[in-house]
From TrEMBL:
Molecular function terms, GO-annotated: DNA binding
Origin organism lineage: Bacteria, Pseudomonadati, Pseudomonadota, Gammaproteobacteria, Vibrionales
Record's protein name: Transcriptional regulator
Gene3D superfamilies: lambda repressor-like DNA-binding domains
Ranges for domain HTH cro/C1-type: 11-65
Biological source species: Photobacterium angustum
InterPro entries, sorted: Cro/C1-type_HTH (IPR001387), Lambda_DNA-bd_dom_sf (IPR010982)
SUPFAM superfamilies xref list: lambda repressor-like DNA-binding domains
Keywords attached to this entry: DNA-binding
Length: 104
């Protein structure tokens, strides 16, 4: 992991977002409460299987827990804007069609 400190901060953040206690998280992961506490307090790093389970449990990517953020250096903003505009036009057209359709 690029930033070991990021892991335990993000682990606590994800757990709190899901309204779970540390005991709940440990039970779900099928690990000892102390083992979970050690993870969340930064005393140990997770095993790969635990990291994968955390990713599934909190619906977060492994990269989220690693503290990595995607780079926007090669991000094509104009391409995204064009796609979003097309989606908006399509969505608006579908809503208009649905509103003007008469029941049979």
């Amino acid at each position: 992991m690029n930033n070991p400190q990021a892991f335990y901060h993000r682990l606590k953040q994800a757990r709190e977002e899901h309204g779970m206690t540390q005991v709940d998280a440990a039970k779900h992961l099928k690990i000892a409460r102390q083992t979970y506490l050690d993870l969340e307090n930064g005393r140990t790093q997770p095993r790969l299987d635990t990291l994968l389970e955390l990713s599934k449990m909190f619906n977060k990517s492994i990269m989220f827990f690693a503290g990595d953020r995607p780079s926007l250096d090669e991000f094509d903003t104009l391409e995204l804007l064009a796609e979003l505009q097309q989606r908006y036009v399509t969505l608006s057209a579908n809503k208009t069609d649905a509103a003007t359709a008469q029941p049979e």
